[in-house]
Amino acid sequence: MLRSHYLKDYTAQQIVQRAMRIIPYSVNVMDEHGVIIASGEPARIQQRHEGAILALKENRVVEIDSATANQLKGVRPGINLPISFNGQLIGVLGITGEPDKVRAYAELVKMASELIIEHMALIEQKQWDKRYREELINKLIQFENSPESLQSMAAYLGIDLAQPRVVMVIELRQPDREALRNLIDYFDTRARDHLVTFTDFNELIIIKPIVLKNGEWDVRQEMSALQSFKSWATSSGFSRIIIGGYFPGDTGLHRSLQSARATQALVKRQKLKNQYVFYHDHALPALLGGVSESWQVQELSRLWLHLVANDPKGVLQQTLRAWFEQNCDLTQTAKALHIHVNTLRYRLQRCEEITRIKINELKNMLWLYIGMELQCESVGSHNLPPSSTAKVR
């Protein structure tokens, strides 16, 4: 069975050029119809070669001397060898010259030709696989197709869609070509289970497999995997990794991308410098970011903004942030701030006096907390002590 798509014109030309650098004879490559598609004598291209047709028909080496050549059309003295790939006949290699002179080169050139064809086929297969992987990523994160069609594509690529995954956005700082090649090589060789695509010159989307424990994703454990990746990413102009949330179900990856994008917008608004940013750690402000210009946000922020206006040094803001971070535990908050618990009580009392609310009442506490999250660029917001979650960012 003939398979012409393995022997393309540019592959045939590669065979001719490389062979003629080594042997002092002209080389021809014929397709499955016996038509010359590459030759050391360009004028012969597109001519039918009778010797090649015979080699294809009988699947054997055909030697043609000068006497025989004079009786055939489009033929010169030489040797014609069938070319096979994956056990299938795909064309013919011809070396022009008296058979006794070129015979010594024939098998060697044939073997080299088949190696070139195999190499080119592997490159083409890799390119197609890359396109399919990118297409699968786009379909997964946009959820454009039915689960059945996604499963078929994933099965072809050997990807298990049952594996829990999240979406990561990797931001790069003006990467050069070599840096990008190294980064892609990392995912091709060391992280083949990651699905990778470029959305911009400075950005990659990664669909990353994760491990669940009792149905939950341990975000802290994820840091060890990210740390092992850091050295590769840094050499490639890595700037920041933003990790979306984990959502089970058919639309989970689409939601994970949305959560990563919301977190990315939050990072820009707040001008965060963290290299690793998890949606898990910023869920509320990220979710509220979409309404940041509305009147509802202004109303929700009213208590916090009033506190900010009356706290020029940011001490009360810092105190409230630490208090919320410690789940409103006085002892733990005082310890985190390195102050006496009575000092903490005084500061919280000052917050009540300024805002004119009872801070221990759930409704007021929630109102103040949401306002703080929405206005996290306020005075004093960057002077916070490290939080329990900040250690992993």
From TrEMBL:
Residues 145-264 form the CdaR GGDEF-like domain. It comes from the Bacteria. Residues 317-372 form the PucR C-terminal helix-turn-helix domain. Residues 8-139 form the Putative sugar diacid recognition domain. Belongs to the CdaR family. This is Sugar diacid recognition domain-containing protein. The lineage of its organism: Bacteria, Pseudomonadati, Pseudomonadota, Gammaproteobacteria, Enterobacterales.
